Amino acid sequence: MERLQVIEDFSSLQARLTADREPNIPVIVIPAGTCGQASGANDLIRVTKRELLDKGLTDKIHLRVTGCHGFCEAEPSVLIEPQGTFYPKVDAKQMVRIVQAVAADEVLEDLLFADPETGRGFYRYDKIPFFRNQQRSIMRMNQALDPIRIYTCIVSGGYGALQDVLANRSPYQALQEVKDSGLRGRGGAGFPTGLKWDLLAALPDEPAKILVCNADEGDPGAYMDRSILEGNPHSIIEGMLIAAYATGATEGVLYVRNEYPLAIKHLMIALRQCRELGLLGDDILGTGLRFDIELVRGAGAFVCGEETALIRSIEGKMGEPVQRPPFPVEKGINGRPTAINNVETWANIPLIFKLGAEEYAKVGTNGNTGTKIFSLVGKIKNTGLVEVPMGITIEKIVHDIGGGARGNGKIKAVQTGGPSGGCIPADRFDLPVDYDSLAKAGSIMGSGGMIVMDDNTCMVDVAKYFMNFLMDESCGKCFTCRKGTQRMYEILEDISNGKATLQDLDLLEELAHVVKDTTMCGLGQTASNPVLSTLRYFRDEYIEHIENQRCPAGVCKELVTYSINENCTGCGLCVTVCSEGAISGEKKGRHVIDVDKCIKCGSCRTVCNFDAIDVR
Amino acid sequence: MNANEIRDIVEKHPSDRGGLIAILEDIQAKYSYLPEDALRLLAEETGTSLVDIYGVATFYSLFSLTPRGKHLCSVCMGTACHVRGAPVIADEFSRQLQTDPGETSSDGEFTLDTVNCLGACAIGPVVVMDGHYFSNVDSGQVKRIIKKTRAGLDDAQIKKHMRHYLYDVNCSRCNHSLMDPDHPIDGAPSIRLTMSSERQHGWIRLSALYGSFTVESEFGIRTSTVLDVFCPHCHGELKSPTTCPLCAAPMVTLFIRSGGVLQICSRRGCKGHMLDLEGAGI
After folding, report:
1. What share of chain A has pLDDT > 90, as a percent?
2. Which of A143, A334, A337, A359 is most buried by a 10 A CB count?
3. Closest residue of chain B to A95, computed from CA coordinates
């Protein structure tokens, strides 16, 4: 790869790549993020390559392997460009047919994504409700480029915003543009990004300033950052480069959690290609801009997503938060000024410059501009990553895009904001999703996890789950967080075992408020949210556990028994999966479960095709 | 533990920031856990107190102070997996492997771990075995997953009917075929090249099966040695200006007769490769 010496070199490379493009040749696009690969995308890629080579089609059909497109439910999927034909849940045999169909310019109607209501196939991916109701400005880039081939990124507009900024704007103007866009940090707290940059830019150049990308996406249930890191690592690098120009920072750190091996691999490749091309290093594109990015891997600690803990972790110490102020922007890594933004925030920066701040700010609502990516998971039909303008209602996300409940369940709540967030009940789904409305409802926006819960989800169990998580992840520095989360967990455990009293409920609430008020960092201050919000909206479920020793959702093991109802056809499937030999019965007759042997593992319920297992 | 290996690792990392965690990661990668001797030596070498090292080693869940099993089984406990039944899966693994989460089975084969979200929420419950993802797992599949892992997941990956042989690979300089039908590997003609390393010179044969990393060679090559690779016909060197995406060693370029360019990493043991069907790639 030849190093680009001046800005014009970049423009001519971009022009050359664009001219080499053959827009009339169909492209088979296969998303192969972690989810895609786990569902079998690698096999599809192999089969496609074999078919293209065997049939001599390499100059008639092109192949592009990309990151995740967001429709995880449909993985492994295939998209044909430019027609926009979308085939969900493809297997290797079907892939052979798809390649043949593309070569013959045909559409395989039996493999199209079918409308759940009419059963008719959608001819274009953007007609499918899941995609149609989104506004995909960041996620769309994931399908346009191959993350390990930088030229495919440049030809689809990557680094164009950087080139424009370097050629046409002063650092001050660049900073102003970000401020005007109204972008707020996508990591959860919603701090205005422009203001943070402004504080950093105002500081002298010595000691050298540092920019950090917080890619320690620890919230269980949120994975939009992973998808950007894997699918378009260049958008983050470009965002950081623009910030380096605007604020005078010379060093960058990408702090990535170790649980994301594919993201780390793609980032390392992207960083190396940028250095080879001269987009990172000294005198970038001949402008005198000096900036490089170091990749630091986390080592598995949720609290390191908190910015002061993150800094300690980058310094190689235990990730314990420290008191603010001084804020990292004054005293960060090794005492040097440090501005930390989250992955999605960085990915928004090139977009602001591509559209212009004014155009960017038209999306969303006043004070909550731009789009936000949510990970819609749990008991929902269309699981996946959805990008929507801020201020859209939960109802729209859950029903129009998510397609409503999975199976026969009835949706009763969504949980937002991970362990720091709370549950919002179905009757409040008219709530707009923005930083302030969610906070008022007792939850938070957080990094964008949205876990859908139906009537088979027990809210006490959910609160217990999060408390167990927080008890594990509390760094132990503040006494009230260390012991408070533990005691709250114990009370919740008693409730789910049917051993609690109503007084315990008052104690739980009191404890929750104490922990909230007396801890130092974000983890502790929000640790009570899962308890407080479920108590606020689902107190009756708690009381049912305490007074009647009954778990309405059939989740809390100690309170339920398994039995077989009259739907049983005696097929014997459950007998084969029961590891305890607790199920018996005549062939074709109604079976019974021996409650003394039953360990309530749920295997029988999972396999039963006749809804014959009762859990009460 | 080999003291020189630890010193090598320490030397590789800059001492100013972040060093300690990266050093511990490398030590764990080498020994699968953090041996006490290694930590004592590390304290001596870096001048960091053993207490601080112990603090970091126990703070982060990635590190283990006890030896780990041959296979690592991670059950995701993220919220989405939890509501879809992950605790039942973890229990079932516990029962099948007869070990508690965080512990290693008595035969030393499996370490069972529960992790807080792997970020693959849409396909939960998720289990990762030695880096291979299993999606939508239910408790009935647990036994099969363990069995598959024992058998070796790398081999199981390419199913027979989906195999793809790069039939004809040519020298990127003289365009002469490099296929060697007399010495099949993985049931098909192998790709024959000449290599040299540390003043030794000899043949090397690669599997032509896409996705297989089987290699035979005239003399043994130490893992992570970077080889010089030549065409056995024109004796031209096949090194390309591109570097390996995984390890930055030079790539070796080969042409596929039916179209496309195959690049493989010249470092022994590295799996970096790129198959571009439309020209030179990157």
Report:
1. 78
2. A337
3. B162
